[in-house]
């Protein structure tokens, strides 16, 4: 029986959530070992599991992989979610990097000082509706296909749908003007393996709140 990937991170979204999404979309069952205190992280560092002394780290196929993009690249390649040739892979990389920029802004919002939160939220709304969502809507409009690249599900679609959920958490109206993105979100969400991941009780993590931030501060000493 194949050994399930083991994910090492704290019990929250952060930089591991996109990995959870990709594994789920690939139909891969995984286990998690949560970092709950500094000693948990120190143990991983001291036993040589963390090449750069930081997480996320995923144990998979006999390797201990770190660096989020490297982990995602491996999973996508292994499970045929990375295009059929170099040109498709270049597009998938380009779209995925754009999505990562959007996700980074949203991920850092809960860490923002209260006095700066409204301004940060305004900036996220502006960039979401004027930069990122129009760009991806136009990609879908330009070729009229169901998915971003090659008319086939790829990591780019999965990476995009994940922050579309976060955008809706911030303000459901932000997606209103992007019918093709709403359709993509529904299409990917209705894939059986993704639908299962979106159900309550799955390994998908809830929005980051003050409690989760405090847990992360305790685990990572920041």
Describe the secondary structure blueprint for this structure:
Blueprint: E1 6-9, H1 17-25, E2 31-34, H2 38-46, E3 57-60, E4 63-66, H3 68-78, H4 86-108, H5 114-143, H6 155-170, H7 179-189, H8 192-197, H9 210-220
Parallel strand pairs: 1-2
Antiparallel strand pairs: 1-3, 3-4
Report on the structure:
It catalyses: RX + glutathione = an S-substituted glutathione + a halide anion + H(+). Residues 3-83 form the GST N-terminal domain. One of its GO terms (biological process) is glutathione metabolic process. Keywords: Transferase. Residues 85-208 form the GST C-terminal domain. With 222 residues, this protein is of the alpha+beta class. The protein has two domains: 6-79 and 197-220, Glutaredoxin, CATH 3.40.30.10; 86-190, Glutathione S-transferase Yfyf (Class Pi), Chain A, domain 2. The protein is 57% helix and 7% strand. The protein is built from nine helices and four strands; from the N terminus they run E-H-E-H-E-E-H-H-H-H-H-H-H. The chain has helices at 17-25, 38-46, 68-78, 86-108, 114-143, 155-170, 179-189, 192-197, 210-220, and strands at residues 6-9, 31-34, 57-60, 63-66. The protein has a four-stranded mixed sheet with strand order 2-1-3-4, with helices on one face. Helix 1 links the parallel strand 1 and strand 2 (31-34). Helix 1 packs parallel to helix 3 (68-78) and helix 1 packs across helix 6 (155-170). The radius of gyration is 18 Å and the shape is globular. The termini are far apart.
């Amino acid at each position: 029986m194949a050994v399930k990937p083991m994910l090492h991170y704290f019990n929250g979204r952060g930089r591991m959530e996109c990995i959870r999404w990709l594994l789920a979309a690939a139909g891969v069952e995984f286990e998690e070992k949560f970092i709950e205190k500094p000693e948990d992280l120190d143990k991983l560092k001291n036993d040589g599991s963390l090449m750069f002394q930081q997480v996320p780290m995923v144990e998979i196929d006999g390797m201990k992989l770190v660096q989020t993009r490297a982990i995602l690249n491996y999973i996508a390649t292994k499970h045929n979610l990375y295009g059929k040739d170099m040109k498709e892979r270049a597009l998938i990389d380009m779209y995925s990097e754009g999505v990562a920029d959007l996700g980074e802004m949203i991920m850092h919002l809960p860490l923002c000082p209260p006095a700066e939160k409204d301004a940060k939220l305004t900036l996220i709304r502006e960039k979401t509706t004027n930069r990122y969502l129009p760009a991806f809507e136009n990609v879908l409009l330009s070729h009229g296909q169901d998915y971003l690249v090659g008319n086939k599900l790829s990591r780019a679609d999965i990476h995009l749908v994940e922050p579309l959920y976060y955008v809706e958490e911030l303000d459901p109206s932000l997606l209103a003007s992007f019918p093709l993105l709403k359709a993509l979100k529904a299409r990917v969400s209705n894939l059986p393996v993704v639908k299962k991941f979106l159900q309550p009780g799955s390994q998908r993590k809830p929005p980051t709140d003050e409690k989760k931030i405090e847990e992360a501060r305790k685990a990572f000493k920041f």
